[in-house]
Amino acid sequence: MVNLNENRLKQLLGNINQNPQMKDQYESKWHSVVHFLHNNVGYKIAKVAKAGSQAKHTESRNSDLDIIFSTSPNQNVNNVLNTIQDKAKKNYGKEL
User: Fold this and answer.
1) What is the mean pLDDT of residues 12-36?
2) Where are the domains of the chain?
3) Alpha carbons 77 and 83: distance in angstroms, whole number
């Protein structure tokens, strides 16, 4: 029986689940989203972080891009999300 700690398991999963092309594609999308949030939505974005399987290094070929971000505490969540959706549709031609 092999006993793996959490970090070693994440490392092994990363080697199995991601080939270099997938990793480059994910990183490109990640940087595009971060740039979009900081420069296009009209709100001060305090922090953007990876979430979901990518953050836990348990992603697979079919994993999506999950993010979490924060704005100043006095912002209305619905207004922020609606603004982001509108700007994303204008910039990328897609709805979120």
Assistant:
1) 79
2) 6-92
3) 10
